[in-house]
Amino acid sequence: MNKKTLKIGIVGLGSVGQGVIKILQDNSELIKKKTNTDIQIIGICAKDKNKKRDIAIHKYKWFDNPKSLAEDKSLDVLIELIGGEDGIALEVVESAISSNKHVITANKALLAKHGNYLFGLAEKNKVTILYEAAVAGAIPIIKTLRESTASNDISALYGILNGTCNYILTSMERDSITFDEALEKAKELGFAEADPTFDIEGYDAAHKLSILASVSFSQSIAFNDISIQGIKNISLDDILAAKDYGYKIKLLGIAKKNYNKLTQNVRPCLVPSESQLAKIDWEKNAVVIKGGFFGELTLSGPGAGRLPTASAVFGDIFDIINETNYPSLGTPLSNLSENISSDNYNEKARFYLRFLLPDVSGTMASITNIMAKNNISIDDITQRISKKMFKQNLVPITIITSTTDFVSINKAVEDINKNNYSPISPNIIIIED
Question: Domain boundary at 303, 335, 363, which?
């Protein structure tokens, strides 16, 4: 059998871009043997040609203009690793598709915002957009949803989708340090960006969830329908209290279908300490899929990093070589339904609450009375010791409720704050049993 040739261009030479080149340099013979294809890098492009990098790039043709590379007539596949939801990343992908080039991207923000448009443009131009590297690093979650579980009616998908947040929460628990201390540690080790806002406020996980929900439930990408809450308000007191109750705190992305309505949430949750998700620590990711025929399936592994993510890029390259012809979102675009979203107000769950209230007589009795008036049963209420808060004459009080809903919880919290002034907003964390 004659060997094929696939000509690729890489735009963006950050961590993942360098990882793609390194894998090709180190494993070219293995890749040729497995694919019967000679993969050639016909051009590269980044902001700074002379920037010091971990790999040699001098033997590759340099393009100052990324759109020129995207439109090059010899190119078969453009690999976009710039990042960002707009700007040059969008322009380059549009140019490549319009020039009838396949696109591989790790850019979840771009797909979350413009995916519906870009997938439509690719279908019109009879090319493919592949994006395994955009979600959960080396975990083959897109391929699993699009192929292996395609015959199932998915009822729920949830998991740990952001390695930065998982590292911070694990570090707080294992080392008994504050959120700020854990964040600085994550930055030092390269698990958090200099500006970690997108990670710690939940937007990165929400970008990924919007893509996963689209593939899982055959609906258009609907990032704007996701309720997003990050982890910056999680304190060491919350971590320790959760541990006392037999839980860990994890930032989860959750998509559930009920009566053809979809709820999508990114939020910190208490999960049982003995559960699979509780055991996913540090920068690792995990995704749980619930399907009609297989029950429950969990995939876990490195959710980020140079070589794990670059490995996912090569999975997409192999699909192009093998002419794997699955719809980009798992379902033909014409068969995707518009997302019918459902709010969270009637969602039934147990809740963890932490208040900081004045250390005065009758506080506990006031809380229990207010909960009862709002038809909320209390499974546990504990007054905790905090030297820091003691100096401010404040008492940390944690509560575990029986099953109730957000409306009742929010009303009870409002009433408690009226009757027992708290200078700090209470933490409300849902319990995912």
Answer: 303
